[in-house]
Specification:
The complex is a heterodimer. Chain A is an alpha/beta fold. Chain A folds into two domains: 169 residues, 3-Layer(aba) Sandwich (D-Maltodextrin-Binding Protein, domain 2); 221 residues, 3-Layer(aba) Sandwich (D-Maltodextrin-Binding Protein, domain 2), CATH 3.40.190.10. In chain A, the strands form four sheets. In chain A, strands 6, 7, 8, 9 and 11 form a five-stranded mixed sheet that branches. A four-stranded mixed sheet of chain A has the order 4-3-5-12. In chain A, strands 10-13-14 form a three-stranded mixed sheet. The longest helix of chain A is centred in the first third of the chain and has 27 residues. Chain A is globular, with a radius of gyration of 25 Å. By secondary structure, chain B is mainly alpha-helical. Chain B is built from twelve helices and two strands. Chain B has a two-stranded antiparallel ribbon with strand order 1-2. In chain B, helix 2 packs across helix 12. Chain B is flat and about 100 Å long. The termini of chain B are far apart. The chains are: A alpha/beta, B mainly alpha. Chains A and B meet through helix 3, helix 4 and helix 16 of A and helix 11 of B.
Chain lengths: 457, 307
């Protein structure tokens, strides 16, 4: 009898504890608590997809300020970049996404289709003018063209440049002027001149693995007006000009201007081997500037703008907000989530963030900050953003191409580099698959407008 | 009468209770097994017949054999199969032969044997991630210690791009796997060797048996059950493993070092095509199932160790 009573008591305690646990869990998941008949949000969940000690410190500090001002607490959650896409996919599939999450633009096709992010058009309607031209005319325009709405608020602007070993250039008697335009042929010439395998000096950090087609696509788009497809949805990047561009680009590897191992290189290997002194140039985003500052002396590196197209004189450059803020479709408190994003985007908070991450601020008020001025370390990137010839080329398409990006694209190029197929076959294999998917997409979405390159002016 | 009935009932209850008791003991483990292994296993088999893409989770449906058609029609399929077979055979053979030599060496008593034993068994204690990084750096085409050594002893006159050359990239992964697995065979075979009675060897010596005869007609038959089970286990583990491939080369260049499980991993966690990955998983299960049955049959495992 005594035992039975004890068991009953334990069972009741378990149920009670579970209920309490669930209650707390719900609160931390952004559920609203009733207080005096009024719904009041206690806590929002925030997911950072590229965590580091510095970022966490920044976010926790800024969340404290936000709570002091609004009374809304924010829980910082993070997932390493390599696992981020997987985790968000799992969370999204089970409707467990946090209220606010940092999102890479490449994921938006999947997320908008699945309803994992919500449109922000109404929220930004009154404040669009506060944001820079690049945000309005390039980033948001691109989202509107592709997905019909604005879904993200940039955390900062990431723009590509060519990092160059200044000391190697001086040694080789080469003078580079980052304020002057140059072409891809000038760049290839530089790569050749910087190569001296006997000294373990290679001209380029060639990207051979995942993401290999990304910079090559931009180069090829220099011959297609920045577009991947024409207005009827026919692929453009299989033309003879594009094939020549494909061959010239891959010649950097085939002619030995990059280490042989580079056929397997991704982002990390490229950056490590540039800062480590094996390669002389690196095409990458402004975020790498912070790594260069930390690992190299000022007289060792400089940044050149992306080369201009010889076909139309445009400066084709991918501009993105690497970890833009979005409100998830699972959020029960989108208005409060927006308050948080608005707070993070305030000029003083945004500039603090950008200095930390090596990005360019998103609001006009901060354009004149000395870090981003013409003599600062980000001068070349800022200059490109104001170049009247600046144009943002289109992506691979409005459909989901994750599997191609993770496999087929670089595998076809690798097959060409290894001599298994010729350049025409490799390029045709890639473009045929893109065309097939585009046709299917247009069949399912007959009214969709084909995305075209965005031009600043 | 009532009392008798009650007694009978009690007796039946006791009988059932005694019979069921062992099942209650194993129930927690069974529940865990079903949850942790049974459900995922069945789910992956079901997914193999579905269009199951995480990137389009609202559109999951049965697609008959479409995933299998895609798998067998993949232009890399034969390459993956060949890589997997070469990887498993060479790695298991290498581990087995070197593990056997290690065990025979350690069977003899010598000064510092304990210390030597601890050192040579160390690779088994390392995580695959660490081993992968170790080999990736050692075989780096520009800075790797392997190229440096080979150049110093005059075997090569310029560095080899081990990780970027078809064929060689798989060799690096096989070498890493052999290095990691030698201690496992060493430990298992050594334990089996130590269980052979000394009198058997003494009797053989009196009959005039030489060292080679003793090895083939005494040692090997005695340790045969251990050899069979370790070879079987290692083959399954190595065939299933994808971590070394992912860490050392990522399957590159152009899938030349990719194996079936690592390709399956890529399809699931990079392409989010869990249906196709499920088909690969099912194929692996079938291959390994057939292998286990055939191997045990051929090796006469039932009769091994009978003298």
């Amino acid at each position: 009898m005594k035992r039975k009573g004890l068991a009953t008591m334990l069972a009741v305690m378990m149920v009670g504890l579970t209920a309490v646990g669930c209650g707390k869990g719900n609160a931390s998941q952004g559920q609203a608590n009733a207080t005096g008949g009024k719904e009041e949000v206690k806590t929002l969940r925030f997911l950072d997809v590229t965590p580091s000690e510095k970022r966490q410190t920044y976010y926790e500090g800024i969340f404290d300020k936000f709570e002091a001002e609004t009374g809304i607490a924010v829980t910082y959650e993070s997932v390493p970049w390599d696992d981020a896409a997987n985790k968000i996919t799992v969370l999204g599939s089970s409707n467990q996404l946090p209220d606010v999450m940092t999102t890479w633009s490449g994921w938006l096709g999947q997320y908008t289709q699945a309803g994992w992010v919500i449109p922000l058009d109404d929220y930004i309607a009154d404040s669009r003018d506060e944001y820079t031209e690049a945000v309005n005319k390039l980033l948001w325009k691109s989202e509107e063209d592709r997905y019909g709405h604005v879904y993200t608020i940039p955390d900062g602007l990431m723009v590509k440049g060519i990092f160059v070993r200044k000391d190697w250039c001086e040694e080789a008697g080469i003078t580079l002027d980052p304020t002057k335009d140059w072409t891809y042929d000038d760049y290839f010439d530089l790569v050749k001149k910087l190569t001296d395998a006997s000294k373990k000096h290679y001209g380029a950090a060639y990207r051979g693995a995942r993401g290999a087609l990304d910079p090559l696509l931009v180069y090829m788009q220099g011959y297609t007006g920045g577009n991947t497809y024409d207005q009827s949805g026919k692929i453009l990047i299989n033309s003879e000009d594009c094939l020549n561009a494909f061959v010239k680009w891959t010649d950097v590897y085939k002619n030995g201007y990059a280490p042989e191992d580079a056929i397997n290189w991704g982002f990390t290997e490229m950056v490590d081997n540039f800062t480590g002194g094996l390669v002389g140039t690196l095409i990458n985003d402004s975020e790498v500037a912070a790594t260069c500052q930390a690992n190299m002396s000022d007289d060792q590196w400089m940044v050149m703008p992306m080369p201009k197209s010889t076909a139309d004189g445009k400066l084709y450059n991918t501009i993105n907000a690497p970890y833009a803020y979005s409100i998830s479709g699972s959020s029960k408190n989108p208005d409060e989530a927006w308050k948080l994003i608005e707070f993070l985007s305030r000029p003083e908070n945004n500039i603090e963030y950008c200095k930390l991450t090596g990005e360019i601020p998103i609001k006009k008020d901060v354009e004149n900050d000395e870090t981003y001025g013409l003599s600062g370390p980000y001068a070349t990137f800022a200059r490109q953003l104001n170049d009247p010839d600046l144009a943002v080329p289109t992506t691979f398409g409005p459909f989901d191409y994750t599997d191609l990006h993770q496999g087929m694209f670089h595998e076809e190029i690798q097959n060409y580099l290894l001599g298994n197929v010729d350049a025409r076959t490799a390029l045709d294999n890639i473009t045929s698959e893109l065309q097939r998917r585009m046709d299917m997409y247009l069949q399912d979405n007959p009214d969709s407008v084909i995305e075209s390159a965005l031009k600043l002016k | 009468m009532v009392k008798e009935k009650r007694e009978k009932k009690k007796w039946i209850y006791r009988g059932v209770k005694t019979k069921m008791e062992p099942y209650f003991y194993i129930l927690p483990v069974m529940v865990l097994l079903v949850l942790m292994f049974g459900y995922p296993l069945i789910k992956s088999v079901i997914m193999a017949f579905q269009n199951y893409k995480l990137s389009n989770i609202n559109n999951v449906y049965f697609n008959d054999l479409a995933n299998f058609k895609k798998m067998f029609g993949d232009q890399n399929f034969l390459l993956l199969l060949k890589n997997s077979v070469v990887y498993v055979i060479v790695a298991v053979l290498g581990q087995f032969l070197l593990g056997m030599i290690l065990a025979l060496a350690l069977k003899q008593k010598f000064r510092g044997r304990g210390l030597y034993q601890s050192i040579v068994f160390l690779p088994w204690a390392f995580s695959t991630f660490v081993v992968g990084l170790l080999f990736r750096w050692s075989f780096n085409g520009e800075y790797g210690v392997v190229n440096d050594l080979l150049m110093k002893i005059g075997v090569i006159d310029k560095g080899i791009a081990w990780l970027g050359t078809p064929g060689l990239s798989l060799v690096v992964i096989i070498l890493a796997m052999i290095w990691m697995g030698i201690p496992f065979f060493g430990i298992m075979v050594l334990a089996a060797l130590q269980s052979i009675p000394e009198e058997v060897y003494e009797a053989a010596e009196m009959d005039g048996c030489g060292i080679i005869k003793k090895f083939f007609f005494l040692t090997l038959p005695y340790i045969k059950p251990t050899i069979i089970i370790t070879v079987l286990l290692r083959t399954i583990w190595i065939f299933n493993s994808f971590d070394l491939v992912v860490i050392v080369t990522g399957g590159g260049p152009a899938n030349y070092s990719q194996t079936l499980p690592s390709y399956m991993y890529t399809k699931a966690f990079s392409g989010y095509d869990f249906g196709l990955a499920g088909a690969f998983g099912l194929l692996l299960m079938v291959i390994l199932g057939i292998y286990a049955v055939v191997f045990l049959k051929i090796s006469n495992y039932d009769k091994a160790g009978d003298f």
